[in-house]
Amino acid sequence: MRHDAQLWIQPNQGLWLGPAYVERKSESSQPPEPVNQAVIAEIKWLAAVLRVERAVLRHQWALWRSGKANFNPEQPRDWHGRWTDAGGSGASDGRIRLAGDIPTGDSPEIPKERPPTPKARVAAYKLAARRLLQFGGPIGKLIEAAEWLRQQSPLIQSYNDPPSSLQELQDAASTPAAGYDIHHIVRQDQEDHFPRELIYSPENLVRIPRMKHWDINGWYQRENPDYGWQTPKDYVDGRNWDVQRAVGLEALRFHGVLKQ
Amino acid sequence: MTDSLERMSVSQLVERFTQDGLKQFTAELYDEHTTYNRLSREMIAISEELKTRAGDQRAALMVLFAHPNPQVRLMAAEVTLAVAPIAARQTLQTLWDQREFPQAAQATQTLRALERGDRKPT
Predict the structure, then answer these.
(1) Is A244 part of a structural domain of the chain?
(2) Which of A53, A106, A178, B62 is the most exposed place for a label (fewest CB within 10 A)?
(3) What are chain B's domains?
């Protein structure tokens, strides 16, 4: 558990006001369907497997960070995540194996040497920042493993910021800082639809970690199941200011930038 | 593509889904959104194909809830909410709890949409 876990919003701490909520007509709630006991047992078992898997991944990362001798992240693991000398458990229980037939992991490592292309460097920054956020620990450990990242430590470190209030993010917008960007809650590319004074007003500007800014820009461009598999960008295009602002604030919350 | 999916076994479809999720993970890292979106559509097609199999075989994707890659877990959970609502939600919740961004962002968005009743998995 992170030392600052209490600062993070939890998805079950009440409802955020979303654009779909703004627009949605009230619908009567339906009673939950009865759940088969066998299904419950299966789910409990899967949850246990998931916990083991997460523990193994954390352990792997700790070993990688500490540079432990003989640690080989490519060593095969069995269905339960345990390392094996062979190629997995053999799926004797008739289930599909996670190690073996089904490809596992394949998450790229942070390169020790500076990648030659900007695109590859950006990917490496993302990997480094996300690992720091997920596993914690001092940024120095990451830099020890990949010295070329030292120059980008403000960029990587800022990704680790806990969520702030809207007022704090807006106040910070007047003070540029390394590793941070000024972000428009209602997107800057909506200038054709709304007056410039609104787009560039202090209420619409927030200072956020640069890589969170990248994440949010990417989120707008990826097809999203909660917008009927259209992109959030397509969803907001042509909608009114309030809907666009609600989506913009949701994006900040979902990415752990804005407190509830 | 649909034709080829029709000829695949359930385990082959699960493997294809997994491969697509791993490619999506890389596409996100490299900001290749067109590739990411094409893979999303293919993964939806796979889940639709599994749905048509006797007894709705989408539950076969539940094995991926324990996959090491967060993108694979995210997409498996997204398309199995109708057949494994509790385990799929738990998988999404774990992505958020473990701060596995950017997948955590999508996971919490879906959890919110389900809580509000804006998302009704079928």
Answers:
(1) yes
(2) A178
(3) 2-116 (1.25.40.70)
Per residue in A134-174, pLDDT (tens digit) is: 887 777 777 777 888 888 888 999 999 999 999 999 999 99
Residue A192 has a CB neighbour count (10 Å cut-off) of 5
Amino acid at position A231, single letter: T
Q: Tell me: do A154 and A217 sit in the same domain.
A: no
pLDDT, tens only, A69-83: 444 444 443 333 334
* Chain B residues lying within 8 Å of A46, measured CB to CB: 62, 65-66, 87
Size of interface A-B (CB pairs under 8 A): 157
Whether B113 and A256 lie within 8 Å, measured CB to CB:
no
A174: Cβ contacts below 8 Å, ≥ 6 apart: A202
* Distance from the B27 Cα atom to the nearest Cα atom in chain A, whole angstroms: 10
Chain B hits for A31, CB-CB cut-off 8 Å, are none
pLDDT of B42 strictly over 80? yes
The answer to whether position A21 is within a domain reads no
Domain that holds residue A78: 41-67+74-106
Domain contains A13: no
Nearest beta carbon to residue B90 from set A47, A53, A223: A47
> What secondary structure does DSSP assign to B18-37, as a single string?
HHHHHHHHHHHHTT-HHHHH
Interface of B with A in 4-23 (CB under 8 A): 11, 14-15, 18-19, 22
Q: Looking at the predicted structure, is the pLDDT value of residue A25 above 50?
A: no
A5 confidence band (pLDDT: 50, 70, 90): low
Residue B76 C-alpha, separation from nearest chain A C-alpha, in angstroms: 12
Together in a domain, A171 and A259: yes
Is A16 within the bounds of a domain? no
- Tell me the whole-structure pTM to 2 decimals: 0.73
How many CA within 13 A on the CB side of residue A76?
A: 16
Q: Quick one: A145 and A166 in the same domain?
A: no
The DSSP string of A232-243 is HHHHHTT--HHH
pLDDT of residue A135: 81
